[in-house]
Amino acid sequence: MAYDTNNIFARIVRGEIPCKKVCESAHTLAFEDINPQAPVHVLVIPKGPYLNHEAFAANASDAEIADFHRTILEAARKTGVAEGEGGNGYRLITNSGPDAHQEVPHYHVHVVGGAPVGRMLS
Ligand code: 5GP
């Protein structure tokens, strides 16, 4: 599947669609999920055109990958779920590809927490 430059998250990166920004870095954007499944539900996305985890891990630069993970941590700290900030931790979820029911065709990681989220994977 080819990357669609008009997918909703690409449009958020370009500022064409608003989002509730949590934090931003050189290569990464973190914003609130429009349909939160927990008290804290943040989406972290690379600014570059990566379809899914596979595309990101294979093609992103080391700088982009490091930036992405640091921004996940920054988002967890800013929303108070990071244990270092007195929170109780968080779950990271990536749906990559059709079998995982990925809805938006731009790589993203969900940061979910603020309450116990259960022991199932999804
Ligand atoms: P997926 O199933 O692809 O892993 O999850 C996509 C997520 O994107 C869903 O949790 C959905 O609520 C969220 N989402 C879809 N459209 C928008 C939008 O326009 N803005 C924001 N902030 N989140 C969105």
From TrEMBL:
Transmembrane segments: none annotated. Pfam families: HIT. A motif (Histidine triad motif) lies at residues 106-110. InterPro entries: Histidine_triad_CS, Histidine_triad_HIT, HIT-like, HIT-like_sf. GO terms for molecular function: catalytic activity. The active site is at H108 (tele-amp-histidine intermediate). Gene3D superfamilies: HIT-like. Residues 8-122 form the HIT domain. It comes from the Bacteria. PROSITE patterns: HIT_1, HIT_2. PANTHER family: HISTIDINE TRIAD HIT PROTEIN. This is HIT domain-containing protein. It comes from Futiania mangrovi. The lineage of its organism: Bacteria, Pseudomonadati, Pseudomonadota, Alphaproteobacteria, Futianiales.
